[in-house]
Amino acid sequence: MSHDAMPPGPRASRRGDRATRGRKKDRKPRRGLKIALGIFLVLLLAGGGTLYWMYSSLDGNIKAVDINKALGEDRPEKLPTTGQNLLVLGSDSRAGSENKELGGGGNVSGARSDTAMVVHIPEGRTKAVAVSIPRDTLVTRPECTKSDGSTMSSANRVMFNSVYSLAGPACVVKTVEKMSGVRIDHYLEINFAGFKDLVDAIGGVTVDVPQDINDKASGLNLTAGPHKLNGTESLAYVRTRHGIGDGSDLGRIGLQQQFMMALLSEIKSQDLLGSPTTTYKIASSATKSLTTDEGLASLKSLSDFARSMNGVDPSSMETIMLPVAYDKQDPNRVVASEPQAGTLWKAIRADTTIPESAKKSPATGG
Length: 366
Description:
It contains 12 helices and 17 strands. By secondary structure, the chain is of the alpha+beta class.
């Protein structure tokens, strides 16, 4: 997981929260799914070509967005190597009773992309890096064609996570490409219920909680130390904002990245190919909540892509937050910090090593 250019949402810094302390009623934060990268589970489990035939009946579950048709030819050039770039989104859609319950219920309509990660897989496909884009980042939204065929004009200083709800996934891809100059090869999206079901299907994920968490907003109560979390607990863990750091959206990105690594390690350690029943259960729950670009919208395509990534190990993955600074006009929002952000995107465009200087963010969220 509508907002307009400056929609209400979780504050980007504690400083912004101080300004609202005098209010009698706090606004309940819209908490989106914060670990969309878990959808790589689908790719990993589909990697066994000999088992792919088991999933042919699941093809119809996968929803597709024709990104290439929607964006046309006005796009960045493809990588000069065999590397790949994926945009992975977590949708907080309230569609369906299960998604609404997991999203906290309430009268929230539509959907937001509260998680966005540009996953870069360099040439050779033995490692990967995930760049998280904070939802409160102010960006320039390019002119986009909406799903109903109408045109949405360009706008400056809009909050990043509003683009999805206003114009749809193709416009999110276009926005990311315009702000980064990086060509997005594939698109993956998963919703609330899909994330919960994936974690439950693999039997839970163990994380080392860095400090006591008592977050009334997400309902999460954990003591510091190792915990094995089920699907509902995992969703609360990656959504918690007030329970850790300075209470900002930036603070919880660290938890999201930590959980992503733990999830991928758990998947890697399981003998999924040795348990067809478990694998089918995982595939079924995943595909029901999965939206991809046309190029990945079948189990055969997912299987082929997964086999090309067999060399990627969780221990070799790197997670980075897009370098951002607090906006000078509105400290509750952030903007891409230069020259760090520009250097980071340049390295991805060239499929080269990202300099350490490009990974440091002035706004850390505690």
